[in-house]
Description:
The protein is mostly helical and 240 residues long.
Amino acid sequence: MTASNWRQGVVLPKWAWLWLPIAVLVVELAFRVINEPLYRRLWESELGPLESGTVLVLLPGLVAGSLALAWRDRLPTAWLAGWLLLIVAGSAYFGGEEASWGQHWFGWATPEGLRELNDQRETNLHNVSSWLDQKPRLLLELGVLVGGLLYPAYLRFRRRPRPNDPADYWYWLWPSRELLPTALLAIAIGLPQRLEKWFGLPIVPPLDIRASETQEFFFALFLTLYLCSFHLRLKARAAE
């Protein structure tokens, strides 16, 4: 990795930021076209590719974010360490809630007190209140939209370069350009459902997929790519 690359935020392998998100969507749409009953059976399962994949794809990000915190003294301002910790903690919450903290995998019974509060009788918090589910999801979606799509569009429209000075906190705060494909897919996947809700437009096959859960997978991938990019750039700065 050259110094110019990491200063521009280009540190992730191409398979991770480009081919992986494309392949995930292609595989899901292919299953939906070729064998819809099998698709419904697999993709609607709590242990299916989407639910389990969302949890698994967050793990590298949690490791990368935790390692990056070890070099927090290399960041240009102290509050960035708090920001990084917030993203790591949010990712841990996201993954834990997605797996009901292991209940989907190990099958334990939900404690009685939580069972009465939980809409789906599961060991999680996001089915207890919208403040633990829809509100955090909306913030994450806005973050992906603004950081992953609108900010790059603004830079291109204004013909401005990305921040490339590691002494500038904007260099660390904004997602790197490598996250653009994942952000684009994450936002685009939810559009058919929104058009149906807002304007009554029917969703045509094969777009009638589990859009909400697919979108969550891409949100998780976005977080992991963000944390991995953060870690690799910070590691490069520490080595430099």
